[in-house]
Specification:
Elements: H1 6-19, H2 35-43, H3 69-103, H4 108-131, H5 140-157, H6 159-188, H7 202-232, H8 241-261
Function: Catalyzes the hydroxylation of 2-polyprenyl-3-methyl-6-methoxy-1,4-benzoquinol (DMQH2) during ubiquinone biosynthesis. Has also a structural role in the COQ enzyme complex, stabilizing other COQ polypeptides.
Pfam family, one: COQ7
Subcellular location: Mitochondrion inner membrane
Length: 262
């Protein structure tokens, strides 16, 4: 038999291709399906349902997170205390700087650096309190006066006393932030009773807490940097060192407890 001429061969291929149904490249039709099932398959663009025993798509993801009432209370108190503490820190540095730099002008850049960081911390917690509708402590005016008096008086006492005050304040504040970081990390790891909750925005809540932990760590590290600066500038040489540091630390602890409640 003579071979099919090239023109007839190409026409035959075209006829075959026209009779062949077009199907999705993503979900090809098995050749063994009957024509009626192929038609139904072509009419649908949805992928095949997962087999009954297949694991859920998000099985590798972390479970959703919602706060318990006690956790919400803890966070509200923490943000309120942090706001009050950073307010006090900015006022202490603002009051210390004029008398301190008058007799120690070389400390002016350091005092400005520490003040600027505290002002940034204060702005951060102002935003967080406004975002989460956390009211300021009612002791706000009292802490304003107390912080200003503490800063001004230790500034007048000299460089060593001012730095001892900074050492005492930053020691308490650094420990306070450490406690908050540990507490929130415990929640995220499932130790606080909030993991596995249901509800809209649960994953968003987890991300917000992770961001808050990062913020607290950054601020804690900057506070501890201030402590190092204080020690480098002869905080230990203050007289009476123990009395001054212990009184300031006791005052900080009392202010934290009061601001948590009122």
């Amino acid at each position: 038999m003579d071979p099919i001429p090239p023109l007839r061969q190409s026409l035959s291929v075209c006829r075959i291709s026209l009779r062949t149904p077009v199907y999705s490249k993503t979900h090809p039709i098995p050749r063994f399906l009957p024509l009626s099932q192929q038609t139904r398959r072509l009419a649908s663009t949805s992928p095949d349902p997962a087999p009954p025993n297949a694991p859920p798509e998000n099985s590798s993801k972390q479970p959703p997170f919602t706060l318990t009432p006690s956790q919400r209370t803890y966070l509200s108190r923490a943000l309120r205390v942090n706001q009050a503490g950073e307010l006090a820190a900015t006022l202490i540095y603002a009051a210390q700087t004029p008398p301190l730099t008058r007799s120690n002008p070389h400390l002016r850049p350091l005092m400005k650096h520490m003040y600027d960081q505290e002002a940034n911390h204060f702005a951060t917690f102002n935003e967080l309190c406004a975002k989460h509708r956390v009211r300021p402590t009612v002791m706000y005016p009292v802490w304003q006066v107390a912080a200003t008096v503490l800063g001004w008086s230790t500034g007048l006492m000299g460089r060593e006393a001012a730095m001892a005050c900074t050492e005492a304040v930053e020691t308490e504040i650094g420990g306070h932030y450490n406690e908050q970081v540990r507490e929130i990390l415990g929640w995220l790891e499932g130790e606080g009773g909030g993991v596995g909750g249901e509800g809209k925005g649960a994953d968003g809540g987890r991300r917000e807490l992770e961001q808050l932990v990062q913020t607290l760590r950054r601020i804690r590290d900057e506070e501890l940097e201030h402590l190092d600066h204080a020690v480098e500038n002869d905080a230990k040489e203050a007289r009476p060192y123990d009395l001054l540091v212990n009184v300031v630390r006791l005052g900080c602890r009392a202010a934290i407890k009061i601001s948590q409640r009122v």
